[in-house]
Amino acid sequence: MPGTSVLEDIELIFENIGGGRGGNQPPAGGGDDGGTGNRSPRPGGGYTQRRYRVAITLAIVSILMFFLGLSTAFVVLRIEKAWIPIQLPRILAVNTVILLISSGTIELARKKLTQSNLPGFRLLWLLTTVLGVVFLAGQLIAWRQLVDEGVYIASNRASSFFYIFTGLHGLHLFCGVMALLYVALRHFERAKIARATAAQIVAHYWHFMDGLWLFLMALLYFGK
Questions:
Q1: Which end of the chain has the least Cβ crowding within 10 Å, N or C?
Q2: Are the beta carbons of 34 and 119 closer than 8 angstroms?
Q3: Structure confidence at residue 160 (pLDDT)
Q4: Mean pLDDT over residues 194-205, rounded?
Q5: Among 51-55, 58-62, 97-101, 213-217, which stretch is predicted with the lowest mean pLDDT?
C-alpha cells in the first residue's frame, strides 16, 4: 500500500540517523503498551541518543542556512527602488496561530508520553498532525487568493519571494507531517527506534519549522 511505503521510508530515515543500534529500547513511558518501561537500557544507548540529537541539529542547521541565504537576497533586492510590494493575504495570520498551537499540542503529547499515558499521547499527537494539515491547506488558500488577484510568482520580485518562501517552508512542513504520521501509526515494538526518541526528534523539527515561519512572516511583513 502507498501509505505503508511512506512509513517504511520514514522509518529507514530514522534508522539511518540512529545508525541502527540501540534505538529499540524505549525509556520509561516510551513503550507501545503505555507501561513504565522496566527493561534495563542497552549498552551504548546514551551514545545513540547523542547521535540522534546531532543528526537533527545538522538537518536543522542546513535548512536554516538555506533560508538565511534566501533572506539575504530578499533584503538586498528590497533596498532597490524598483521593489513593488504585495498585499499579504490575511489568512496568513490565522495560519500562524494554528502553527503556534500545534507546537503547544506536540509538547503536551510528549508530556503524556513521559507519564505513560499512551492514549492521551496519541490523541494530542494526532491533533498536532491535523493542525499541520490545516496549516498547509491555509497556505494553498493564501496562494489561491493571490492568484485570484492576479499576483503570480513571476509578477514581480516581492511575489516571487513570497511564493518561494512559503512554498519551500510548506514543503519542509509537509515532511514534518509525514514524520508525525510515522510516530502516530508505527508499532514501535517492531521498530529499531524508541517511540520517545522518535517523538523527540519530530518535536524538535516541528518547533524549528514554527520558528522559521515566524521569521519568514516578520521578514515579509516588514519588507513590504
A1: N
A2: yes
A3: 93
A4: 91
A5: 51-55
Give the side-chain half-sphere CA count within 13 A for 18.
24
Q: Which three cell numbers stand for residue 63?
A: 535548512
CA distance 173 to 221: 21
Q: Give the chain's radius of gyration (CA, Å).
A: 20
Other C-beta atoms closer than 10 Å to the C-beta of 199 total 23
Full-model pTM: 0.78
d(CA 50, CA 55): 9
Burial of residue 97, with CB atoms counted within 10 A of its CB: 0-12 exposed, 13-18 middle, 19 or more buried: exposed
- Sequence-ordered alpha helix ranges (H) in the chain: 2-18, 45-78, 91-114, 118-148, 157-185, 195-222
- Cell readout for 39 is 527493561
DSSP single-letter state for residue 192: S
Does position 40 have pLDDT exceeding 50, yes or no?
A: no
93-98, Cβ contacts within 8 angstroms, sequence gap of 24 or more:
94/138, 95/135, 95/138, 95/139, 95/142, 96/213, 96/214, 96/217, 98/131, 98/134, 98/135, 98/138
Residue 84: burial class (beta carbons within 10 Å; 0-12, 13-18, 19+): exposed
